[in-house]
Amino acid sequence: MSLSFLLLAVAALCALSFYFGRQRAVALSGGRHSNLHSLPAHYGAYTAAWCGIPALFLILIWYMFQGTVIETLIISDLPAEIVNDSGQLSLALNSISLIAAGNGEHLSVSPEIIDAGRRLGNLQTVANVALVVVILSAAVLGLAVSYRKIEAEMRARNNIERIARYVMIGCSAIAILSTVGIVFSLLFEAMHFFTKVSPLEFLFGLEWSPQTAIRDDQVASEGAFGAIPLFAGTLLITLIAMCVAVPIGLFSAIYMGEYASPKFRAVAKPALEILAGVPTVVYGFFAALTVAPFLRDNGAVLGLDVSSESALAAGLVMGVMIIPFVSSLSDDVMSQVPKSLRDGSYGLGATKSETIRNVIFPAALPGIVGAVLLAVSRAIGETMIVVMAAGLAANMTANPLQAVTTVTVQIVTLLVGDQEFDSAKTLSAFALGLVLFLVTLGLNVFALKVVQKYREKYD
Amino acid sequence: MAAVSQSAMTAEPSVEKPKMTARNLDLFYSDNQALFEVNLDIAEKQVTALIGPSGCGKSTFLRCMNRMNDTIDGVTIKGDVTLDGRDIYDKRIDVVQLRARIGMVFQKPNPFPKTIYDNVAYGPRIHGLVNSRDELDEIVMTSLERAGLLKEVKDRLQSPATGLSGGQQQRLCIARAVAVSPEVILMDEPCSALDPIATAKVEELIDELRSNYTIVIVTHSMQQAARVSQRTAFFHLGKLVEVGETDQIFTNPKDERTKGYITGRFG
Ligand SMILES: Nc1ncnc2c1ncn2[C@@H]1O[C@H](COP(=O)(O)OP(=O)(O)OP(=O)(O)O)[C@@H](O)[C@H]1O
Ligand SMILES: [Mg+2]
Questions:
Q1: Whose CA is nearest to atom 30 of ligand 1?
Q2: What is the Cα gyration radius of chain B?
Q3: In angstroms, rounded to a whole number, what is the distance separating the alpha carbons of residues A453 and B6?
Q4: Which of the four, A180, A268, A364, B250, has the lowest number of CB atoms within 10 Å?
Q5: Burial of A26 (0-12, 13-18, 19+ CB in 10 A)
């Protein structure tokens, strides 16, 4: 029985126990719900929860440990000379699992391995059967116990409230723990990298060419891991994007919020926000296939040497992508400027643009700065557009017409393709990821602080 | 006084030399009519108080007088409002200049989040009333002086206005309005957010300002109307019920509704 069948069976049992619990409550009430502490459905949900939740929890635990336990059992029976050599061991385990899955006929391996393979197969079958038995009996047990507990005075409603709270705590714990886990793995691998390349070289080195030898007999350079060109490229593209997004986003927000008639706003605002729903890949090929050639051709007409992958193309398109972000955030903060301030200004005979320039904009400035910082952190982390349009050459240049590369692009290229997992090249991706994470985290925290502080002021 | 016969309901709408007049003024918020046939004269260099139960249209009427209703969507206005005999809803009138001539002080103090100095200097700056920094200083000082605030703030002109107390903020808003040298100042419940002491100061101030400006004040306090105004107008359900000398309105109202309101029987 596969996992999906097991889950279906548990679900069916839950439905059944809901029915039973409800029936029992109805029977106890003698036809009058006011005799019960809670509604019949609460009793049903109570039994269903006791039937389903422990079973699901058990499944989770089981799968967390099944693999390790079985592997330990297999390894303990292997000859010592295989176990002590990690290379041989992983090879052997590989063949063993192939044999267990029934795909090992063509392997030429020692009889111990074949033996172990068969044993693994048996163990897996046993484990699967055991799982089904354990889970189903847990579900039935939960059903039985909670069913017996149902009485007229039992506070099923409050119990469900408690169960719901635990379920929600569990979900938030998963969300938080997985984030923490990712950060830690990032940190761990980055540390690993820094044992191979010094952090100083990484953070301040001017040359980036992460080519290292893949095999020992290959002739290859040592590889240079100075990340400054990547930071510079990221910065350049972000700057270009901001030059597009900030003025356009801000002015469109001002127009929408202060000038546009309600009818126009009702149409234009959602339209602008649709821009935010376009997948970044689409922006990416728009940048690579439309904007970049356009720039190159027109550059040639003007006598400029624009490379076919340029920081300008990527930056422009990224700016367009960020416009709705800037405009909707700054629209929010500007509409929070109280009407009384506008009235005060109009009452003194100020025109609309004077009011916006002298009163609304300064009052909203901290919030707008926060919005822009959030947009910057989006731009820094954006990947797809730059992968497709910015190029791979780690140039140190401030010329937007040339190709540059960014942190995100390099992470992608470092991890695509065959590499030893613990080579400096692969590990450097984690170090770059860590830097990226820290920078965007810092920007976000700072930006949120700024926005929040501003919010408090007018409440 | 030919205008008296215009409407039997408004007992004494006209005065000798009106600074502003409203004639047959109707106002609609989309489809809801908020003002019905209002006829009222505002006497020059006097304080006119507008009283009436909540929702009767006092603020709406006040906003008609400097066209602040223009900033609200869906407002339609019929009838005439004049300033010195000229229709302010005339197409040729520049609203911006009109509002410079008719200043407004709001119910809640609304200083801009700028320094005290910049708040007062706001109007003169946008209207280009001054040519030099010295002139601007001069205007700021006299305006603060007129608003009775100078003594309290002269050492902290460059600190943020939002740091002032509520009463000080309201007087700052009055100084801000005065700095543009308006001819008329409209005040919508200027003391409703203030404590009795700050209220007394603002009332004193209004009394002094009367010698230079024409003032219209909306108030919910009968005592305040009696203390500061020379003329009082009573609104009810969007209609002007009665207007006259403040003494007469409070001692000898002609309309039953007025009597009921000032004696506290409804409102
Ligand atoms: N912006 C608006 N949009 C639609 N209707 C409005 C608006 N402002 C006021 N009204 C309506 O117009 C009528 C008069 O309101 P107004 O604010 O003039 O009353 P008021 O006499 O100032 O009351 P209060 O003493 O409570 O301030 C009310 O019925 C109100 O609901
Ligand atoms: Mg009002």
A1: B55
A2: 18
A3: 57
A4: A180
A5: middle
For domain B2-111+182-262, the CATH class is alpha beta
Name the residue facing B108 among A340, A354, A457 (closest C-beta): A340
Sketch out chain A's domains with CATH numbers.
Answer: 3-154 (no CATH), 209-458 (1.10.3720.10)
The pTM for the full model equals 0.73
3-state secondary structure of A348: coil
Pick the atom of ligand 1 nearest to B56's CA: 21
Q: Mind listing the pLDDT tens digit of every residue in chain A (459 residues)?
A: 578 889 999 999 999 999 999 999 888 888 787 888 888 889 999 999 999 999 999 998 998 898 888 888 888 888 888 888 778 888 888 888 888 887 777 777 788 888 888 888 888 889 889 999 999 999 999 999 999 988 888 888 888 899 999 999 999 999 999 999 999 999 998 998 888 888 888 888 888 887 755 555 555 556 788 888 889 989 999 999 999 999 999 999 999 888 888 888 889 888 888 888 889 899 998 898 999 889 888 888 888 888 878 889 999 999 999 999 999 888 888 888 888 999 999 999 999 999 999 999 888 888 888 889 889 998 998 888 888 888 787 878 888 888 888 888 888 888 887 666 677 888 888 899 999 999 999 988 988 888 777 666 654
Backbone angles phi, psi at A354, to 5 degrees: -65, -40
**CB of B11 closer than 8 Å to CB of B56:** no
User: How many angstroms separate the Cα of B265 from the Cα of each of B49, B53, B243, B256, B257?
Assistant: 20, 11, 19, 11, 9
Shortest CA distance from A258: residue in chain B: B71
Q: Using a CB-CB distance cutoff of 8 angstroms, which residues of chain A are in contact with residue B106?
A: 340, 343-344, 347
The SS3 assignment for A430 reads helix
Q: What is the largest CA-CA distance in chain B?
A: 57
Asked if the interface predicted TM-score (ipTM) of this complex is over 0.90, the answer is: no
Closest residue to atom 16 of ligand 1, CA basis: B57
What is the Å distance from ligand 1's center to B55 Cα? Answer: 5
Could you give the residue ranges of the DSSP H alpha helices within A104-260?
Answer: 111-149, 156-196, 199-204, 228-254
CA of B192 from ligand 2 middle (Å) equals: 11
Distance (Å) of CA A51 to CA A39, A132, A394, B35, B182: 19, 15, 59, 68, 78
* Residues A95, A113 contacting (CB under 8 angstroms): yes
Measured between CB atoms, does A170 come within 8 Å of chain B?
A: no
